[in-house]
UniProtKB/TrEMBL annotation:
Subcellular locations according to the entry: Nucleus
Keywords tagged on the record: Metal-binding, Nucleus, Zinc, Zinc-finger
Transmembrane stretches, start-end: none
GO molecular function (one): zinc ion binding
Any single GO CC term annotated in Swiss-Prot or TrEMBL for this entry: nucleus
Listed name of the protein: Uncharacterized protein
Chief location of this protein within or outside the cell: nucleus
Length: 385
């Protein structure tokens, strides 16, 4: 289950909850108007528990994981919710966005934003830019991830034409803007920024997909680590701090149980975390998982062939033919697999619902109540899955 909040067209604080089915469909559970209520950890816990109950009543599903953003009150709420039957963790997409913010170089971006705003907001420069570039430069949006990366990329791709524009119309262009565009140091620093922001943007886009599970997101963070290998120590320091914030033992165990990955990207410390976590759940599962990682008996060799990588993890586990006597508590183990291998990595699917909610409860339909708007949003998402 995902839980997040925003403000509606009336500027009322709204908390929404949703779940993603095994087939990847996003389903809105509840829309709660929290006007006059402080978003304490205890209050958010009440909303979360109520939504879990409603998910069972309305849709017949059992919520066994919860993902939220990483605000302190929500993080405390997750800790208060923690139990043997529920795993809780922070949204990897949010953490990747925080990583991009950590690495922002305002000495570079402030100059680039000044150029972009100048050619978007001033009438004559905007007309000249449209004629020369054929399109507008991209302006970053505070609440939209990756737009700063897109803005830097837009500036660098169009810089040659901007230099020519400034030369051809030097009397019409602010000399300070011309100076920024011609500054080689700013360009070099922008290119350096893009070298590490671009792989972060790619990782963020992958993390926020509806079907990205906590098993998959471990691979995404590992790929990003390789992509940032040649960067400075400062970049790596921020990366490892955010990676530790995003990933925990359930992520690593899920990665080990996913037949496509088998924990091959994990280091010794991460494996230790996963097995320690598994030992708390059921020590009898450990030899069975060790055999899985070794691709050994009782698992038949053919189930590890490349052709099986296109099979979903739960279908793989339910479809493998193993003597029931070799399973350590078969139903309990499959239940653990279902919990870990269906847990989504981010709240992005819920945030996309916010956009749909805004289309339903718009400024033209501002008398539409939150409850009815939530129901219409559910129907809108269902028809457009």
């Amino acid at each position: 289950m995902s839980l997040d909040g925003w403000s509606n067209v009336h500027n009322e604080p709204i908390i929404c909850t949703s779940f993603v089915s095994q087939s990847g469909e996003s389903v809105l559970i509840d829309t709660v108007d929290t006007t006059g209520k402080s978003h304490t950890a205890e209050y958010l816990k009440e909303i979360a528990l109520e939504s879990m109950s409603n998910a069972t009543k309305k849709f017949g599903v059992s919520v066994r994981s919860i993902v939220t953003d990483n605000a302190s009150n929500v993080a405390k709420m997750r800790t208060n919710l923690e139990s043997d039957n529920l795993i809780q963790y922070g949204c990897s997409a949010h953490v990747l966005n925080l990583l991009a913010l950590d690495l922002d170089n305002s000495a570079v971006t402030d100059h680039i934003l000044r150029v972009i705003k100048y050619f978007r907001n001033k009438h004559l420069p905007a007309a000249l830019a449209k004629e020369t570039l054929g399109k507008k430069l991209i302006l970053p949006h505070e609440v939209r991830w990756n737009t700063m990366t897109d803005a830097i990329k837009s500036f660098l791709e169009n810089r040659g034409n901007l230099v020519q524009l400034c030369q051809d119309h030097k009397n019409d262009i602010d000399p300070h803007i011309t100076k920024i565009i011609n500054d080689v140091n700013i360009v070099m620093n922008a290119e350096h920024m893009l070298s590490y922001l671009k792989p972060i943007a790619v990782a963020l886009d992958r993390a926020q997909r509806d079907k990205t599970t906590i098993a998959i997101v471990v691979e995404i963070w590992n790929k990003l680590e390789l992509d940032l290998k040649g960067q400075s120590l400062d970049v790596k320091k921020h990366f490892y701090r955010r990676k530790d914030m995003a990933l925990d033992a359930p992520h690593y165990l899920a990665n080990m149980l996913d037949h496509r990955f088998l924990g091959k990207c994990l280091n010794n410390h991460q494996r230790e975390q996963a097995f320690t976590y598994l030992n708390k759940i059921n020590p009898d599962f450990i030899p069975f998982v060790m055999a899985l990682l070794a691709e050994s008996t009782p698992f038949p060799k053919y189930v590890f062939l490349p052709q099986f990588r296109n099979t979903s993890p739960m279908m793989w586990w339910k479809g493998i033919i193993i003597d029931d006597t070799t399973w350590p508590n078969k139903q309990g183990f499959l239940s653990l697999c279902e919990q870990l291998l269906t847990a989504i990595a981010a709240t992005a699917s819920l945030e996309r619902m916010f956009s749909s909610f805004g289309l339903v409860q718009s400024k033209l339909r501002n008398r539409l109540g939150n409850e009815k708007a939530g129901k219409l949003t559910f129907l809108f998402k269902y028809k457009n899955q």
